[in-house]
Design goal:
The chain is mostly helical. Helix content is 59%, strand content 1%. The protein folds into two domains: 122 residues, no CATH class; 159 residues, no CATH class. The chain has 15 helices and two strands.
Length: 340
């Protein structure tokens, strides 16, 4: 028998058979890049304190992952960019005035407790950055709710303490919000551009949308979760938001205030903790939007994005199971044939 040349041999391997040039590292660093505009705008508006908080959060996250994996004698994966991304998201979700130990604790909880103790990347149940911020908000409520007014002057160290737009809306109503910002047009403009109090990375809707557009262009996220998330939130704001700038609440204010854009595009779409099936992603996003507005309108906090994402993370396995795709060629046996 003639010997078959190596290039003519058939290679048999397990699925999946679709090959792609995309790697975990490439995807993670691309997401990091997409968050760069938000980080830069946050640094511009809030100055050195914002840069300090972001830097500490990122360094702590990377260091925690390295030390944990080294201690467990497992593969070191800090080069894949996932720990850097978690630290960046933790930092972007912090007020710019927090002391140094807040981003340290937040990144530690996100990396060690939420990610590594569950088995590392791909095995964590909850979004690490959201879990880190939730722990900080529950443990240090005062420090996590001191908001500084943006100065748009990088060299200025001190800034006036003020409330976030959602805080003003919840505590004093739409009339007070209009009084602070002047009129509806100016309110929308300030919220969209980012000149308002809030967490470092959630202030500028424009910067976040630029990053989200990049992720859509690269095909790393789809429309299912963001659209269902924000669509449900907007509908609830319109119906149950009370008397405001529109007939029954102003959905635009809720969409471009707080962590809605950051959560919908960059945290709820996390590959590990969101459903993998498109129909399931619609349910997941709608659940996030519903819970966010339930907390904003009826809860004790003016913001609910983080808690909504964490709660819906619990339902991800059930949603995936309920909407799992059918095996190609599978035919359900007839009940009569089964009895025979």
């Amino acid at each position: 028998m003639a010997e078959i040349k190596k290039e003519h041999q058939l290679t048999v391997s397990v699925s999946p058979h679709v090959k792609s040039e995309e790697t975990t590292s490439r995807i993670m660093w691309s997401v990091n890049l997409s968050l760069l505009p938000a980080a830069l705008i946050g640094a511009y508006f809030f100055g050195p304190r914002a840069v300090f908080a972001l830097t500490i959060a990122i360094i702590t996250a990377v260091l925690c992952e390295h030390l944990y994996q080294r201690g467990m004698k497992s593969k070191i994966t800090i080069n894949d960019g996932s720990a850097f991304l978690t630290g960046l998201l933790v930092g972007l979700n912090l007020p710019p005035s927090v002391p140094f130990y807040i981003p340290v604790i937040g990144s530690f909880v996100a990396i060690v407790i939420t990610k590594q103790l569950f088995g590392g990347l791909g095995f964590n149940v909850f979004n690490p950055a959201a879990a880190g911020r939730a722990f900080l908000l529950i443990s240090f409520p005062k420090l996590m709710t001191i908001w500084k007014e943006p100065t748009a002057a990088f060299v200025q160290m001190d800034a006036k303490t003020t409330a976030t737009p959602l805080g003003i809306l919840k505590e004093e109503g739409i009339a007070k919000l209009m009084e602070v910002f002047g009129d509806k047009t100016n309110l929308y403009t300030e919220l969209f551009m980012g000149h308002r109090a809030g967490s470092i990375g959630e202030t500028s809707t424009l910067a976040l949308l630029i990053g989200a557009a990049f992720l859509f262009y690269r095909g790393y996220i789809s429309w299912h979760i963001p659209v269902s998330f924000m669509g449900t939130a907007a509908a609830m704001a319109w119906v149950f938001g009370g008397k405001g700038a529109l007939f029954a609440g102003d959905p635009i204010i809720h969409l471009i205030s707080g962590g809605m854009i950051l959560g919908a595009f960059f945290m709820a779409t996390d590959y590990v903790t969101c459903p993998s099936v498109k129909k399931g992603q619609l349910i997941f996003g709608a659940g996030c939007g519903f819970l966010t507005m339930l907390i904003r309108l009826k809860g004790g906090y003016p913001e609910g994005v983080m808690f909504a994402i964490l709660i819906m993370n619990c339902f991800t396995p059930i949603i995936d199971r309920g909407f799992k795709t059918k095996v190609f060629g599978f035919k359900k046996p007839d009940s009569k044939e089964t009895k025979k």
